[in-house]
Write a sequence for this structure.
């Protein structure tokens, strides 16, 4: 298997590229390849892409972007792996292609100068396709890379272990280690909260103390410790994540950025507020004039998204009270006063409240059948997931696997709220998507024949019921607001009963019951309950002569009837709109719409390639125009001045010469194209694509409507309400009559 690491390149990108492409390490350059750039000029081309992005999307450094030039990914293979340099190179390309989705320039090289073969991959921090920055998240990105790499290696039979062989690690051992490293996780959570709402170093240290974090920034490395909670060994800031977020430099940069963002956001909000008539109007103008969008959170707060290359997000808590959206509603077009006052509760109190709302995540064990294990490796298991909606592979690392010593069976531990990457095997295309652990747990168990247990629910246990499912309240278990989706609910209107299917090993989320308190307005946090707890509680409340359920089912019936009526009306409207006269016409139109969708999908693929090629030419033209004055001046100055300028503008001249050479070679050097015109054309390409996407959605919607018509007619036909054959018979008779009339007319003439 392979070990993966990733870090950022903030300077000397050219040296990094030169190092990884060293002929002595790469079999004379045979094990070097690149994507959308040339390996020899990769640093120049990547810089040009970043420059192009800056011109089109604005200076991202002013809105929270950092000076990250590129990302350096290393994939090292085990010496035990029987892997050739060529295969290692191919696996590295698969890894980076899947990670970046073909939107970022990269150089990959395979080094064979050490005992273990390893790949170096340097990819740009900004996409050449949409000009957005690669979003590298602490731990998440590293874990995603590891997950993709492990799955690819397993698919190619690297480090494959015989079934039942002891793995490299185990969940049992990992659980012990995790307890010992919990300090780091806790420090990271507290520091993240502080950095979301702080603009100065003094405030940072004050809030850290309030949250029980001892900070020491005297030495080379800043350290943190939860001394009151028993942490004896201090934790370095650079050990808290892989992105230098909590180093001295990282914290200082974040605080500075916060202040800059705060100043910009306050000005944008003030200007927009006094020009708006409503909150809807405010949201629109803020987006139009300042390219800032608002995201409403479940807790009622808001996040402000700067739609720049870095997609910077600012939490509302950073703003003074008067800038909070909740205060705006009734004050538009008034003499509203913006102040710097803040009435936030102490951070330690808010943190405690926040932690109360966090559901404690526990891993769920699933013992696998042999046929569910695609491959077993020392690093973990490649597992096959098959459900009605999903067929694919996912990888679970060995530290989330236990092996039963008696029978050799594998037990994996899954978190129902985690995102897992699935490689889709249901189509010929190798597509990946994420799925919650909850879906995997249920899919694996159902495939094993472990169907959820069905139990009839008492009416008093039903808080609400709808087409989406039921919300349960179980008094005997002190549980309320447990939601069961419709697919696990069976309703019998005749017997006036509701049956739910509950998986004993599944997790459900609800609230503990509490005594009503008018003064307590705080939203209660959800808690996790097992299926066994819910079943046990429901079994104690058996429905007998249930009078509670009748009005609830009657209401659901009325809703269902109304929904059914609405569906029939929608069907009739579609039939009228599409001028459908026969069932055969439905099939004809379905085929036509499907063909139109395929055609538009093809056009989108074509324009994607055009955007890629166009952006390549556009960035060359912009670079050429940007640095042409420097090169022109070189011919006008003295020899001594020329030497000085060449030294000062070495990088700019390099980019200019490269752009000029490429443009001449492709006959794209057009002096009539201005920078503004180029950028406008680049944006037009995006607009074209958006129109195609909208067309695709239009045909998709029409297709869905016709499918609904087909399903409705099929349903009515099965019920004997609608008869296909009679319609076809009538149509045949009409056609025959028409033929007869036409024949008579010809004979008479």
């Amino acid at each position: 298997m392979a070990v993966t690491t990733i870090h950022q390149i903030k300077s000397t990108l050219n040296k990094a590229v030169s190092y990884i492409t060293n002929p002595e390490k790469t079999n004379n350059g045979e094990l070097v390849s690149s994507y959308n750039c040339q390996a020899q000029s990769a640093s120049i081309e990547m810089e040009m892409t970043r420059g192009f992005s800056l011109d089109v999307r604005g200076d991202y450094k002013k809105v929270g972007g950092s000076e990250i030039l590129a990302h350096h990914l290393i994939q090292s293979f085990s010496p035990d792996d029987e892997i050739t340099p060529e295969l290692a190179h191919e696996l590295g390309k698969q890894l980076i292609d899947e990670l970046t989705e073909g939107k970022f320039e990269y150089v990959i090289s395979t080094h064979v100068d050490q005992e273990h073969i390893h790949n170096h991959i340097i990819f740009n921090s900004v996409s050449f396709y949409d000009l957005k920055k690669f979003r590298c998240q602490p731990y998440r990105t590293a874990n995603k890379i590891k997950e993709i790499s492990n799955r690819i290696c397993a698919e190619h039979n690297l480090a494959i272990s015989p079934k039942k062989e002891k793995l490299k690690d185990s969940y049992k051992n990992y659980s012990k280690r995790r307890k010992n490293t919990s300090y780091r996780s806790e420090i990271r959570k507290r520091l993240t909260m502080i950095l979301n709402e702080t603009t100065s170093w003094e405030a940072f240290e004050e809030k850290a103390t309030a949250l029980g974090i001892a900070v020491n920034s005297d030495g080379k490395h800043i350290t943190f410790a939860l001394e009151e909670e028993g942490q004896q060994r201090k934790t370095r800031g650079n050990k808290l994540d892989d992105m230098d977020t909590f180093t001295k430099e990282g914290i200082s940069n974040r605080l500075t950025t916060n202040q800059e963002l705060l100043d910009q956001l306050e000005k944008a909000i003030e200007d927009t507020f006094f020009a708006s008539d409503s909150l809807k109007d405010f949201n629109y103008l803020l987006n139009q004039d300042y390219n800032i969008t608002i995201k409403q959170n479940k807790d009622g707060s808001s996040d402000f998204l700067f739609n720049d290359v870095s997609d910077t997000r600012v939490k509302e808590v950073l703003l003074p009270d008067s800038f909070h959206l909740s205060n705006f509603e009734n004050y538009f077009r008034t003499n509203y006063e913006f102040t710097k006052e803040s009435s936030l509760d102490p951070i330690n109190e808010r943190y405690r409240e926040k932690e109360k709302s966090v559901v404690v995540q526990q891993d769920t064990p699933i013992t696998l059948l042999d046929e569910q294990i695609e491959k077993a490796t020392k690093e973990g298991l490649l597992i096959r997931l098959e459900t009605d909606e999903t067929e694919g592979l996912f990888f679970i690392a060995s530290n989330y696997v236990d092996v039963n010593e008696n029978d050799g069976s594998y037990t994996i531990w899954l978190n129902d709220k985690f995102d897992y990457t699935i490689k889709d095997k249901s189509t010929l295309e190798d597509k990946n998507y994420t799925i919650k652990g909850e879906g995997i747990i249920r899919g694996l168990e159902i495939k094993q024949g472990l169907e959820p247990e069905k139990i009839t629910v008492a009416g008093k246990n039903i808080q609400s019921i709808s087409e989406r499912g039921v919300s349960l309240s179980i008094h005997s278990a002190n549980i309320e607001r447990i939601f069961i989706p419709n697919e696990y609910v069976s309703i019998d209107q005749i017997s006036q009963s509701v049956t739910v299917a509950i998986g004993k090993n599944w997790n459900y989320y609800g609230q503990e019951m509490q005594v009503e308190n008018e003064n307590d307005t705080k939203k209660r946090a959800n808690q996790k309950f097992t299926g066994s707890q819910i079943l046990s509680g429901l079994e104690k409340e058996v429905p007998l002569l249930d009078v509670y359920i009748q009005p609830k089912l009657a209401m659901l019936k009325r809703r269902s009837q109304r929904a059914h009526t609405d569906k029939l009306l929608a069907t009739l409207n579609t039939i009228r709109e599409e001028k459908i006269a026969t069932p055969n016409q439905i099939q004809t139109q379905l085929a036509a719409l499907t063909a139109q969708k395929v055609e538009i999908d093809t056009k989108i693929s074509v324009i994607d390639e055009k955007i890629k090629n166009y952006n390549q030419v556009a960035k060359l033209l912009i670079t050429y125009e940007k640095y042409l004055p420097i090169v022109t001046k070189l011919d006008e100055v003295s020899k001594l001045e020329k030497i000085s300028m060449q030294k000062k503008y070495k990088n700019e001249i390099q980019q200019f010469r490269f752009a000029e050479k490429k443009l001449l070679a492709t006959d794209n050097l057009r002096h009539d194209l201005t920078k503004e015109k180029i950028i406008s054309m680049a944006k037009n390409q995006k607009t074209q694509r958006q129109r195609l996407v909208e067309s695709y959605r239009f045909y998709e919607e029409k297709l869905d409507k016709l499918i609904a018509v087909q399903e409705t007619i099929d349903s009515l036909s099965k019920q004997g309400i609608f008869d296909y054959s009679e319609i076809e018979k009538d149509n045949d008779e009409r056609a025959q009559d028409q033929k007869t009339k036409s024949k008579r007319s010809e004979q008479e003439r």
